[in-house]
Known about the structure:
The structure is a single chain. This protein is α+β, with helices and mostly antiparallel strands. It has three domains: about 1-40, no CATH class; about 50-200, no CATH class; about 225-415, Rossmann fold. It has seven helices and 24 strands. It has helices at about 40-45, 225-235, 250-260, 280-295, 335-340, 355-365, 400-405; strands spanning about 1-10, 15-20, 25-30, 35-40, 55-60, 65-75, 80-85, 100, 115, 120, 130, 135-140, 140-150, 150-155, 160-165, 170-180, 190-200, 220, 240, 265-275, 305-310, 325-330, 375-380, 410-415. β20, α4 and β21 (about 305-310) form a beta-alpha-beta unit. α4 (about 280-295) runs antiparallel to α5. It is elongated.
Amino acid sequence: MLLKKLIKIGFSCLVMLAGISGSGAIIFAQEAAESQTIVYTEKQNAMRITANDIKLVEEKNEDGELTGYHLYIRKIKGVESVLLTETTRDPTGKADNYAYRALEYNPINGDEIRILDGKPLVSEGAKYSLIDSTTEKVEGLGDAFHIFIPLKLQFGYEWSRNGIVEIGRGTFINIRTFEKPYADYTGEYMDSPFMFNLETRRRAKPNPPPPDPPVEHEVVLTDDYNPAASQKFEEMSDFIVYSKGPETIVDDILEVFDEIGNKENLDVVFAIDATGSMKNDIETLKTDLLPALLKEFENVKGTRFGLLFYRDYGDNFNYKGLPVKFFAFTDNLTTFNKNLNSIRILGKEGGDIPEAVYEAIYSSTEFYSWRPGATRRIILIGDAEPHPKPRGLGKYSKDYVMGLAEAKDIKVKTILLPSD
Length: 420
């Protein structure tokens, strides 16, 4: 079958390239010198798994210790097998992503057949793939595939990139669905990324009353977050909050301040994605953030708040040649709130595509007058990843901007919003 690539040159010229592919149906729409957007066929989109199609059940041993998770995946029309793989985190779509494997045999998937290049995989390196081609009846799902996910997974091979992944909050897995049994790549296939998350979350309260019984956190798989954005936000920060959007965003910010600890003599810049997908989140911040900050900083002295909105090149923000909107430090929360409420988002600006995230870190680091001796923090809030290759002057890479921040003893905290 033919693999078609649409390569966008400049703004309007399209060039068609043909190649050979096992699956044959993926179309890549590529922007010159930028990132590759994968455009799926109607048939592949029908093979996509959603959060409503899965069920996750904990497995515990006799001592009540967690040993793994049973993942049930609804069998949808056109899907005959499923395989768990790494999430595709390369925006260009070129980097390999490997199948996950268990470290030891389990009776649920240990005997499953996996086919590659027309032959069953029997090598030691291919044993214990997390794959299923048979279904069972599952309450709430009907016919469903069943995969056991142990707490540690392995990927790759000795001669290639490889490693061990420990399952926990923030771990991404990809459910790859296949048109044919045994994860046979000679048919169509489709990827659906999910992240392990805790369904229930509580923020610590000062001077709490006698504690209630421990809250039992339900572990769920969610497809709310952009895997590439998650990876990059984690790389920039030693503390990341996975927000649920408008319903938790203010509490998420307060959680970051809890992590910062001592807020006396604090300089903090809020760097906020102001593209269309963030409209509802920012509208919530306009109404709910000020009261929360007034309470949080009621008896705190010496705190200054900066505000920086960022979009992408070609949008209507431009400050010193970068797509940002700058508001200087202020120690007056009413002024800060006025600046916050000055932004207008129509809902058409940008989207869940690479944005000028590194430029926002650069601007937050270099455009503000940070006080000597102050605790210095940037709170980055967004839902999309940075550009994989520097834009503009070509210098705003992760290493460059994070190096500048480190030189000024500025630490970045990140809040990742669900992607639309």
